[in-house]
Amino acid sequence: MTGLAWRKGKSAGMTLLMAMFTLAVLIPLVLIFVYIIKMGFSSINLDFFTQIPKPPGETGGGMANGLAGSVMLILLASLFGIPVGIFGAIYLSEYGGGRFSDLIRFSADVLSGIPSIITGMVAYTLLVVPMKGFSALAGAFALALIMIPIVLRTTEEQLKLVPGTLREASLALGVPLWRTTLKVTLRSALTGVMTGILLAIARISGETAPLLFTALGNQFWSKSLLEPIAAMPLQIFSFAISPYDDWHRLAWAGALVLVTIMFGLSLAARFFGRKRQQGN
Amino acid sequence: MNSKVQLNNLNVYFGRNHAVNNVTMDFLANSVTAIIGPSGCGKSTVLRSLNRMHDLTPGSKVTGTIIMDGMNIYDREIDPVAIRRRVGMVFQKPNPFPAMSIHDNVIAGYKLNGRINRHEADEIVESSLKRVALWDEVKDRLRANAMELSGGQQQRLCIARTIAVKPEVILMDEPASALDPLSTLKIEELIEELKEKYTIIIVTHNMQQAARVSDVTAFFYLGELIECGETKKIFTNPDRKQTEDYITGRFG
Amino acid sequence: MPHNETDLIEVSVLPQVETHRWQLKKKLSGDSAFRGVTVLFAFSVLAILLVMVAGMCKESLPAFAKFGWKFVTGRNWDAVQGSFGALPFIWGSVISSIFALLLATPLSLGTAIFIAEIAPKKVGGVIASLVELLAAIPSVIYGLWGVLVMAPWLQRTVEPFLAEHLGNTPFFSGAPYGVSMLAAIFILMIMVVPIITSITKEIILAVPQSQKEAAIALGATRWEMIRIAVLPYGKSGILGSVILGLGRAIGETMAVTMVIGNTPQISLSLLAPGYTMPSVIANEFAEAASNLHAAALMEIGLILLVVTLVINVLARLLIWSVTRGEKEGRRI
Fold first, then answer.
1. Does C127 sit within 8 Å of A14, measured CB to CB?
2. How far is it, in rounded angstroms, from Cα A265 to Cα A198?
3. By residue range, what is the domain housing residue A248?
4. Has residue A136 been placed in a domain?
5. What is the ipTM score, two decimals?
6. Which pTM was predicted?
7. Total domains in the fold of chain A
8. Same domain, A13 and A104
9. What is the pLDDT of residues B3-13, one digit of tens each?
10. Which residue of chain A is at minimal alpha-carbon distance from C313?
11. Which positions in chain B touch A170 (Cβ < 8 Å)?
12. CATH value at residue A275
């Protein structure tokens, strides 16, 4: 074989290898989705959405309390996480510049890289211990800590994209900076900011570790926010590691619902993004 | 004619950059003053000092006084927002608010600051749009998005928006440079009419425009006021050689 | 002539419209209050981080005081007796993560190269989206699939094979359990691939066109062009992405907890169950037997925090140094 043919052959061989690697990477994705759908689909029924889990040994039941609990946790987390993220971003974009801003950005980046179980430990220390008990509040706080860096960074990016002339037009009319920021700048960046928020929500809806010792989980319905509360990921976890087949069945169904919700949120986020581009 | 705005020893710094150097001049009421000069001579910087836009530029510093109706607008006690209600600004590139209708753009100065009675709003919109000769063209589509207008129409809309809040002084930063010749002409006609009621200060790099439109012309170079006087005189018989060189196109 | 008092100048045109007057700052526009609010919120981000680190240091103090450095060398973890040595978990984290990365890196690189240089643009885009999908799957769902599908499959197929053929080596000794270090390695590998792939893909796309063209002009084959022009240019960035993946692997909790077997032992065999730092925290923290137990778990958390922080900073520095350069390069 001539040198060139050898080299060409090698290149083709490497191309084949890269293709096979890519296939190897995609196979688990396919497998996971196939299994989730295969194992979970049949369990999606009205019971799933309306009933709480049955005790081990009994069949049937659902994950209604987990679904409701997750919704509650996300709402609470957003209540805290979104304002902090947005107003912090407003500071960085409209007032910032200088070392303090860099420090804040650095902190946000660091926070986003911390394993979520540690976020749970912090929420435990700050809320569970003083309150002497696990609670939905603590769980929501832990989730908010995960949300904040995401919302902060995406909002700042979006605000910076708003052209300076828009701010100037408003300011030149005698509109104070704070009104300009809220009613012109933020309004203009709104769809992009919403996209970031949706992505943050999609992310925390699947988080389990931070809830393990904050929200703790609940077999039944919670009566107050100061009590432990069920959440879908927590239930999926405890059902999956249990020895009961029926609970396994529920876990798969829960996984299917969870993945569908997350996928839906991401699609909505992408839809918002495209709508903004059309609007411009 | 009396003076509306007086600059005394105005200096503007951006960090170490001394952009405007010791400028003292008067702007006469109900007249059009043109500020001309080559690129980078500080014309826009001087203009923006008049409505304290530099307050929003980090690292900027303004010294000296700018007196309007007996008050130094840079006095510590005064809120810049109030100044900008009395001193309006029209920008080089038309910048109507893209998410708002034509109607809402005109009264944006009120809407963004709170609520306004619908009846009053409609009156203000109509009178402002009539003053800029835009009313007939848009009266049937006031709720349409402002971005649907042509460049020249958008700029007139921005002028309508500016006069809707009833300023006394209107600053214009090269208002026609992004427009076609026909729109430019319309804007210049508009300026001629507006000076009846307002004091107009216009920055322009177009000397012919300055000659057509203004009563007083100020020539700046490298941050300094070189010469200021009646437009006719500046363009036919200037005192300073630098002015003459610029006018005749020898530089800039 | 300047006046000493402020002038009140009234210009009213329509009734109810506000009158102009020189307004004194003190009454005013709310700008400083608003700014203050935003500063507060921005600062809270920093405050959270500081509280986090400080809080964990304080809470783990009792354990550090009692065990000192023997904490990280001790092999015995017994909540009942009150003796806590964290070595099994550190071992478990290190082994699972490092092997996961050894396997994931070539796969990720190959995929990234395939997406960026080999596949047609649209196909590459689809594959990249699929890889992003992998990244979005929550850890607990990987764990669900891992414990109910992958681990049993390993127990039925791969592990007996390894036990039979390599069972006399210490690395594959012992009975196949399914849940094992091997299972953890595999699941971590799958989870870490998307990160390395997407960053490496960006780095490859950022290589300037001129570099690639130079190689091709010299007669290089496609693979040679990649090997000579693309990979060396993005070397530190790719390394950064691998280190970032390492950080993620070490911090991964749910999926690992569900497939590793949760047995605090140090074994050379990959077929044996193990335990990682996040897993022991996940399993034991809610019901910590004593204050010392809780403090010991906190100390493990602190170790985890410090390790991931250092790794993340290192990774970001490496990646930043590459992608900061000209982003003119795009695929041919």
1. no
2. 6
3. 63-279
4. yes
5. 0.91
6. 0.87
7. 2
8. no
9. 889 999 999 99
10. A110
11. 97, 108, 112
12. 1.10.3720.10
